[in-house]
């Protein structure tokens, strides 16, 4: 099984497990989110350690160690991206499985179990046609001021949505053209979505245009831009104006 096939398979399987946990009726709200996180994390970590024992591993739900920093190949996973949405029985949550090589997100899969879909680097599809008016996905609870300002400047429609993976895949799936985030994330929030976005020909970078680099000692990532390549220059220019 190739790395891409493994990522897609594990993301899909973890998604099915999460749906079963939710359907069991044994948990609700925050308890459901915790149960889902723990169960999916156990599955993903055990599977990766068995299938790729020599690679490093970073998961949101496992204690981090410095061991991964010496590895060329590191798997970065988020068992439930959008725990709140999962606990609220919404569909805008995701499972992330990525492989970063020398800090670059080269392989990835994002499962959207609530929609029955898995998007991955192994089988990138063609991007749908863009809408005449750009659409920008933003947090459904706390849209970043910078994103709102850029949307106003370029005449983009704001589309509220849950998890980071759901937002990024909305761009891949043609439901939006731009995902601009400035509220801070961690490596597991974007590694798989960025890998999938890049494989589909989208632009992905920091909001100053610099590359996104993974497997760092500090896993915090302040900002992110994933968008159709046609909008990258315009959005980066508007962001630069805000900090001028």
Overall tally of domains: 2
Name of the CATH superfamily of the largest domain? Fructose-1,6-Bisphosphatase, subunit A, domain 1
Count of β-strands = 12
- Poorly predicted regions are none
CATH class value of the largest domain: Alpha Beta
Count of separate DSSP helical elements: 7
Helix content: 25-40%
Radius of gyration equals 17 Å
CATH architecture of the largest domain: 2-Layer Sandwich
C-alpha termini separation? 49 Å
What is the CATH topology assignment of the largest domain? Fructose-1,6-Bisphosphatase, Chain A, domain 1
Largest sheet: 5 strands, mixed
Relative strand content: 15-25%
Describe the 3D structure.
With 244 residues, this protein is of the alpha/beta class. The chain has two domains: 3-120, Fructose-1,6-Bisphosphatase, subunit A, domain 1 (Fructose-1,6-Bisphosphatase, Chain A, domain 1, 2-Layer Sandwich), CATH 3.30.540; 135-243, D-Maltodextrin-Binding Protein, domain 2 (3-Layer(aba) Sandwich), CATH 3.40.190. It is 39% helix and 24% strand. A hairpin with a 4-residue loop joins strand 4 and strand 5. Helix 4 crosses helix 7. The longest helix is centred in the N-terminal third of the chain and has 23 residues, at 29-51. The protein is globular. The mean pLDDT is 95. This is 3'(2'),5'-bisphosphate nucleotidase CysQ.
